[in-house]
Batch of 4 targets.
Target 1
Amino acid sequence: MLLNLWNLHNSHHQTTELFLHISQHLANPPPFSVYTVSEKKTKKNQKNIVYQNFSFFFTQVFNDPIHGHIELDSLLVKIIDTPEFQRLRNIKQLGGSYYVFPGASHNRFEHSIGVAYLAGELATALMVKQPDLNINDRDVLCVQIAGLCHDLGHGPFSRLFDRMFNPEADPATKDWKDASIAMFNHLLENEDNKVKEEEDYELLLPEDLIFIKEMIKPIKSDDTKVLWPYKGRDENKSFLYEIVSNNQNGIDVDKFDCLARDCHHLGIRNNFDHHRFIMFARVCDVNGRKHICSRDKEVSNLHDMFHTWVSLHKKAYQHRVTQSVEMMIKDALLEANKRINIVGSGGNTFHLSTAKTDMKAYTKLTDQVVEEISKSTNADLEKAKGILKRITTRDLYWFVGQAKPVSKVVNLDYGMKDKDLINKIYFYNKKNLKKAFPILESETALAFLRVYLKEPKTKTAKDKAKKCFREWCKENDFEVLLYFYLIALIDINFSVRTNLLYCNIIAIKKVTYKTLPAEIVA
């Protein structure tokens, strides 16, 4: 009888009833379990989740150091067990930070599983608390798949490849989220994976696939104000697009897992409690559209989230040694770019910068490329190998100094360009669960410039670089700083490349720097 259960293709409710019936007749049910959710009223008329444990053979349990034991649907497991997803095991979550923080060895693989789990938790919490939202099992499963696959498009060392290497190697390159969608398509189309067997699941194709891809890369919030732009779900379920990647205010489960996981591995305190956010999350009407809102008393918890996020950038992500290492890895990849051939579809070969155009080739591109360069006997890769050897011997690009513009100030937006993010968050009060309101607040920050000396690093060269840096700062109205770990990079030839403060965390109007005179580097 149990063997025949594997061949059943009943609906969710039919399967649930069957397993409940079987579990009642089994003295010792199997170890794997899933939960059905029902509601009951407490004395205070508060809804509690009641879990009924019963035998289930189509889930898998993952023991995650951040979220504990989590159970994922069989379709998610099927996606995980593909080469396209397993590739994420070899892509560092924090790029070059591992060369500075010994604990930062975690990868995109476990982060993606964590995001899928949290996406399901938030969607299910809303479904239980607000049945009138008509969230169904398909919605929850689609949100989980989007969370699981949202980072499929990252290149080696994550944002190092996407934001440092690609812009120089191929300025016309697409966003890594486009690559995530392309990799997701490739995963589904790969016949060896056998994922696209819709008769085994309750997904409706192509509607649900469109919905999943729209959640992986949502449309910019400015483009959604008038007409509803999405096709996967109607406007009455607009809040579902805010769970995985929230373009409205930047508060999403992707950030929740990043904060918890990165703090854990970096040894930095995480003051944000995502469990509380999920507990108090509620969908309210805001200007005619449904958005995920938080309880008014959760303002301080959200401030903790933003402050922890900024603290991670100051202490870890933008650590000056991390940036030095990442610049060197980027330079090594640029040197090796057109000297490495990756076999893709139809036997065609691609370079590092073009592999993203062919997902079969891109599947083979991970952090391992650095080891392959280091061990290569190809004479054309000697310069790239030399740069990587300097990293292993700790002969890093030397930090000259950093400065901030005296009069240039910008608004903190924690990820939302040209907006004050706190103004985009809506809250509700327990006396009126349907009415949402903003809490206005403004903060400011400064853009910083950071300079590194590649070579030579003799005392004369260092002194000259420092002198030139101070002269340039004086001429361009910059205040020289000593120990602030912020950004903007200049090579020894002083051709300026601008990075934004906290990367995408702070929206900065780019300052037009004057090209430094040639005699500075003479």
Target 2
Amino acid sequence: MKLAFRFKEGFNFLSIIGLSLVLFTACMNNGPVKLPLEQIDESTRSYGSHIVQDILKSIRSDEGAHYLIEKEYITPKIYQGIRNSGSAFGESYFLINMMLGNVKSYKLFGGEQTQIIKSLRYKLKVENQDLKFVELKIDLNAEDDLAGYYLYVTSKDGKLKHENLLPKIVLR
């Protein structure tokens, strides 16, 4: 009987330690941490700018999102997502072209860092004056490959508030 009691004591002690460890690590991950522009190195800025140019080119291209498939920097997730959701990307690219008009310029205005993803946020200056804010956000994984991209729009009339115009990547 004494042996069973020791096992229970040890089990309870291990359970408390395990639970404490889980709670401690859960509290450490509070989501993305904002990266000031001065902490984003020049090579990452240049590489991000190159990717943004390609994404904007793909939106204007007849190939659409398939233009990005040939790029060396896309992850398998993006590759499969474009292959599986090609028509959804085609429709959203068409709507984006109609809604934004020409993209006049873009500028890096912020960044975020999670444990494995670095996000670069670009403000787009577009032809359509009815839009208050347009943001293209790209996610780069640890190898600096494109892990996701999003186009957020906020309209001046308040009907659109930070709405992503790109389809969600679906893997099958």
Target 3
Amino acid sequence: MNPLAITYPKKRSIDSPIDKLTNKIFDSADGIFRGFSFGQDLDEIIAKERFKVFEREKEYVGVSFTNSKMETIDILYFRSVFNKLEKIQVEVFMNTEKDSDDIFDAFFFKIFEKNGYPNPIKDGFCWNRESEPNVSLKKVKNKLDQGVQLVFEK
């Protein structure tokens, strides 16, 4: 791939079902994601989180939402040894390749509006700014799943 010939996703309709799902997933423009910020107490985050807790592990707490099309959104909030938020991993599993591509594009523009132009990586893009969290957005496609993985890290 020629690095000078980067192809960015296409902007979709702002009232599409995919855009509405994207807004539900991102929830708030405040903070890093869903109104939460790095260093915030994880118990406080889980108390405010609207999605259902499905997993509590030593390293993270997972919340999940399944929409009417049985597409699943999993969010993992990773904690430090002091129970403070230090990483967020979002996985969205879609039913069709088209919906998967559309949600990738919608996520891209949501992040682009806040962080500007990304760098290309394998299967996606990353945003690495000095005073901002690192963000990576990748397409996921294998025999079982298709969708998007989004990661925010300090």
Target 4
Amino acid sequence: MRIFRRKRNSGEHRYYLLPGMGRSNRRFRKKTHIAAVIVGILASLLFGTAIYLIQRP
């Protein structure tokens, strides 16, 4: 039943690998993501500790 389906734009679903977009880029992005999560956790702990110490009776 092709009547109800919309024709897909094949250009929309294309993915070109340019230089620097291969496996090494995925490793770099994974390391960067993990580092960002760790820094975020440490910053939130530091900020939470500072708020706790300020608000302590």
